[in-house]
Design brief:
single chain, about 300 residues, alpha/beta, Rossmann fold, globular
Length: about 300
C-alpha cells in the first residue's frame, strides 16, 4: 500500500474551493493528532454534514490508545475501530540471504520488500498498513461480497507497489498483469511472483495515456487474453487514465476497483465516466483522511469506486 504515508496520500487540489485548509506540514509533530481532531470538531460543530461523518468523528474523539511505536496521527487515515487490532511488532519478518531482501508471509505466500528496506521494523510497519488497507471493514478494500473474482479472470493490477493485492488473488485467477511505476519494486515483484511466472506478467511502467518507454495504456496491456478486472491505484493519475481509456472501457464488460482519494474531484468524475458507459457503480463504505497533504473540507474523502457491466 505505501512506501511512506506521504507517497500514498498525495492529493491534487487544483480545483478545490477557497475554504479552511489543514496544512500537511502541521500534521507531523507530537501534537498533530490533537490538532487535527480539534480542527475537525470546530468545523463540524454546527455543520449540516456532521451526521454524515458521525462514525468517523466518534472514533477520532474516542480517546483510543495508540501503539507507542506508531504516531497517533496515522490512526486517522482509516478512522475506524478495526485499525486498533494490529500490532506491528507481532509480524514475523524474514531475510532472504540469496536475494538480499526482507520478506513476510501474506496468506501463506512470500511477499518480498525491495532493497530500500534495510531493517525489519520498517517492513513490519509497512506490512501493518497493507493488512489494514485490505481489512474487510476498510474503505480501501478492493474485494468483498459486493465485488468478487472468478477463476477465469484476467486481472490488471495498475499501481501494484508491493504486490499485496495480486498476491492475495494469484491462485484464484487465470492471469495477472502487474504494472508498477516505481522501478525499485520490480526486482521484489519478480521474486514474489516467481512461483507463478507462467501466469503473471510484470511491467515496470506507469499506467498512462501514451505508450513509450516509461508509460503504457490500458489498451496496450491487453495482449492475449482479454482483461476482465482492473484494480487501479496510480497516485493521482486515475482520472486521466480512465478518461483516456473511456472508449476501451465502454466497449468491454469489466469489473473495476479504482481509488478516488488522490484528487479533489476524482470520485465524482470517475463515477460519472463509468456510469455514462453503462456501468453499475458504487463507492466503498467509509472514508479516509489524507493526512500527508493539505486537507480541504469536507476533509473525509471517498476511497474507492467499484463498478461492473
Amino acid at each position: 500500500m505505501l512506501n511512506t504515508l506521504k507517497q500514498l496520500f498525495r492529493n491534487n487540489y487544483k480545483t478545490a474551493p477557497d475554504v479552511p485548509v489543514l496544512n500537511a506540514a502541521a500534521m507531523h509533530h507530537a501534537e498533530s493528532f490533537d490538532m487535527l481532531v480539534k480542527n475537525l470538531n470546530t468545523y463540524f460543530a454546527n455543520h449540516p454534514e456532521r451526521n454524515i461523518y458521525a462514525k468517523e468523528l466518534a472514533f477520532l474523539n474516542s480517546g483510543f490508545k495508540a501503539d507507542p511505536g506508531i504516531d497517533k496521527i496515522n490512526y486517522a487515515i482509516f478512522p475506524y475501530d478495526f485499525i486498533l487490532g494490529y500490532d506491528y511488532r507481532a509480524i514475523p519478518v524474514y531475510f532472504d540471504e540469496t536475494a538480499a531482501m526482507f520478506f513476510v508471509y501474506l496468506d501463506g505466500k512470500k511477499l518480498y520488500y525491495h532493497k530500500g528496506y534495510t531493517n525489519a521494523a520498517d517492513v513490519q510497519k509497512s506490512f501493518t498498513f497493507l493488512l489494514a488497507e485490505q481489512h474487510p471493514d476498510s474503505p480501501h478494500c478492493y474485494l468483498g461480497k459486493d465485488l468478487q473474482l472468478g477463476s477465469n479472470e484476467v486481472v490488471a493490477d495498475l499501481g501494484a507497489a508491493e504486490g499485496n493485492f495480486s498476491l492475495l488473488v494469484v491462485d484464484q485467477v487465470k492471469e495477472l498483469i502487474i504494472v508498477e511505476a516505481d522501478t525499485s519494486w520490480i526486482e521484489a515483484l519478480h521474486k514474489t511472483f516467481e512461483p507463478w511466472k507462467d501466469k503473471v506478467r510484470i511491467i515496470g511502467k506507469s499506467a498512462g495515456c501514451i505508450n513509450d518507454e516509461k508509460t503504457i495504456t490500458l489498451n496496450k496491456l491487453e495482449e492475449g487474453n482479454a482483461i476482465t478486472f482492473v484494480k487501479m491505484d496510480i497516485e493521482g493519475s486515475e482520472t486521466s487514465v480512465i478518461n483516456y481509456a473511456e472508449s476501451y472501457i465502454g466497449s468491454h464488460h469489466l469489473k473495476l476497483a479504482v481509488t478516488t482519494y488522490h484528487g479533489y474531484e476524482d470520485a465524482g468524475v470517475i463515477k460519472s465516466i463509468l456510469e455514462r458507459n453503462d456501468y453499475h457503480t458504487w463507492f466503498s463504505d467509509g472514508y479516509m483522511l489524507f493526512i500527508s497533504d493539505d486537507l480541504t473540507p469536507p476533509y473525509f474523502r471517498k476511497t474507492l469506486v467499484k463498478a461492473y457491466k
